[in-house]
Amino acid sequence: MRDLVDKLLKNRILTKEEFIQLISGRTPELSQYLFENARRVREKIYGKDIYIRGLIELTNYCKNDCYYCGIRKSNSNVSRYRLSKEQVLACCRQGYDLGFRTFVLQGGEDPYYHEKRMVDILRTIKQSYPDCAITLSLGENSYQTYAAYREAGADRYLLRHETANPMHYAQLHPDSLTAENRKRCLFDLKRLGFQVGSGFMVGSPYQRAEHLAEDLLFLAELNPHMVGIGPFISHHETPFAKEKNGTLELTLFMLAILRLMFPSLLIPSTTALGTIDPFGREQGILSGANVVMPNLSPLDVREKYMIYDNKIATGLEASEYLDMLKEQMRKIGYEVVVARGDYKQE
Ligand code: 5AD
């Protein structure tokens, strides 16, 4: 199996069959070999630097009903909230003072934040913090709306494709959502000059190695700047309440494959990794990730943005949390830096 890792290192791609073989045939020894290579590839481009992004959870209203997600429309037990422009700006101020130079505005698909409202928020953030990058993660939109966001100052956009296989996509989403439109959005975003992030859940219901191989091949086609992956974690108030969670082990393996496929990729060690294992975040970094996204949302809304059970919503002040994070990274030999942390061309 090492020969497949070596081939991936050299060619940065495998065939679907080879990816399936690599994923299904993985062993602890092979994983170690893969992780060592992933760290080496990452360090050649990004050194030991860890980029941080300040996550601002704008709204937990959502018009969609994805079967896996805790803030889906049908979950009537969610206490819904929306942040005002003033609240968002206060989060940015706090984040800036702590050393964040990227703000990520993430939310459910909430029509309250229509194009005009978002453009106003974006312009104000950009005026106040011209040295910062703005990332949006607000779901599917028209080309025109994405263009307006870009023009108003958004630099990056995160939209996970969730699963590239249309049949698997239909097993995770209601009929109103399709893999085709998801992909259309991603290619629109690239065309508009965003740094684009995609990604998928690992261990989602009905997922097989074949689907993961298709995810990797889709990403090779998209050639994104960022890819976020995390284990599926069941939420007790969704149709998938009784489904098994994804594993840390497979998520790390997939993460390291991504690093070998795309040496320059910005890969977050996600909150979901930190949720299924106390050292999940560190292990993500040691498998090739180079980004962490601490939460800058107001403390009282954090527990309301529960997309899966037990999502970390630290009650600590953001600054204390950041000191802790820096220390955790230092302990494993990495360093949190104050920078926009843009994609580096090789
Ligand atoms: N478990 C893990 N990840 C989830 N997401 C949504 N619900 C869950 C869940 N139950 C992920 C999706 C989405 C991102 C914001 O969070 O991939 O794109």
Question: What's a concise summary of this model?
Answer:
With 346 residues, the protein is an alpha/beta fold. Helix content is 45%, strand content 12%.
The average pLDDT score comes to 96
Number of helices: 14
Main pleated sheet: 6 strands, parallel
Domain count: 1
CATH architecture grouping:
Alpha-Beta Barrel
Based on secondary structure, the structural category is alpha/beta
Oligomer: single chain
Total beta strands: 9
**Percent in strands:** 5-15%
Helix content: 40-55%
Molecular shape: globular
Tell me what the structure shows.
- With 346 residues, this protein is an alpha/beta fold.
- The chain has one domain: Aldolase class I (TIM Barrel), CATH 3.20.20.70.
- The chain has 14 helices and nine strands.
- The strands form two sheets. A six-stranded parallel beta sheet has the order 2-3-4-5-6-7. Strands 8-1-9 form a three-stranded parallel beta sheet, with helices on one face.
- β6, α9 and β7 form a beta-alpha-beta unit.
- α2 crosses α9.
- The radius of gyration is 19 Å and the shape is globular.
- The two termini are 28 Å apart.
- The relative contact order is 0.17.
- The mean pLDDT is 96.
Key structural traits:
TIM Barrel, 45% helix, alpha/beta, 12% strand, single chain, 14 helices, three-stranded parallel beta sheet, 346 residues, binds 5'-deoxyadenosine
Secondary structure blueprint with pairings:
Layout: H1 2-11, H2 16-24, H3 28-46, E1 49-52, E2 54-59, H4 85-98, E3 102-107, H5 115-128, E4 133-137, H6 143-151, E5 156-158, H7 166-172, H8 179-191, E6 195-202, H9 209-222, E7 226-231, H10 248-261, H11 271-276, H12 280-286, E8 291-292, H13 299-302, H14 318-331, E9 335-337
Parallel strand pairs: 1-8, 1-9, 2-3, 3-4, 4-5, 5-6, 6-7
The chain binds 5'-deoxyadenosine (5AD).
